[in-house]
Design brief:
Distance between the termini: 46 Å
Strand content: 25-35%
Helix content: 10-25%
Order of helices and strands: EEHEEHEHHEEEEEEEE
Length: about 200
């Protein structure tokens, strides 16, 4: 673990891998540190935004003392269910990459337990990690210039839902009618770090 000062109001914690990001987030939720206003996870870092007047050195020292072993779960609330039409353009390609049939890919995706590890790329885009390693596939060799809003896709160890139309190079499994990002909603994003997700096939 490496702790760096980030401007005047934050510290950046660098860790070894995504598992440690999730573990650190869980530890901070279980034992919140005084003066930490917000926790922003990423793939290999966790940014802590501090309240005015908080001593960054004190928070940095406290972070290094947090126990990370075994901290793998956050937010024990209900699981968000997202209905998916599994008719994506890359479903057959994903099947070939994984050695599964298209129907087996769908069953694997709907059976896996997913959790939002962090957000990025676009507002409301959550990077979800699951517990079925068979679904790890590379990005497409060539990105699309436009991926429709609601597209459900895979890339590397992640699955995601495109919150709006945008370019993208992930493998498209299908689409959902669930609106994952809405500025008129509080909070706007459904897919926030720590949220658990199950995908459900719909006709």
């Amino acid at each position: 673990m490496r702790v760096l000062k980030c401007a005047d109001t934050g510290i950046l914690v660098e860790v070894a891998d995504l598992d440690q990001v999730i573990a650190l987030g869980a530890a901070l939720e279980a034992d919140p540190l005084p003066g930490v206003a917000d926790v922003v996870p990423a793939a290999r870092t966790v940014l802590l935004r501090l309240e005015p007047g908080t001593d960054p050195a004190g928070v940095a020292a406290a972070v290094t003392e947090l126990p990370l072993t075994g901290q793998t779960h956050r937010r024990s609330g209900d699981t968000l269910t997202i209905g998916v039409h599994y008719d994506g353009e890359d479903l057959t390609d994903v099947a070939e990459l994984t050695g599964l049939s298209p129907r087996e890919v769908v069953r694997a995706h709907t059976s896996a337990n997913w959790k939002v590890a962090f957000c990025g790329f676009a507002p409301g885009f959550g990077y979800l990690v699951g517990d079925d390693p068979r679904l790890r596939v590379p990005r497409r060799g060539e990105a699309r210039t436009r991926v429709p809003r609601g597209s459900v896709a895979l890339a590397g160890e992640f699955t995601g839902v495109y919150p709006r139309s945008s370019p993208g190079g992930w493998q498209l499994l299908g689409r959902t009618d669930t609106v994952t990002w809405d500025l008129d909603r509080d909070p706007p994003g459904l897919l926030r770090p720590g949220v658990r997700v199950r995908f459900e096939e719909v006709a």
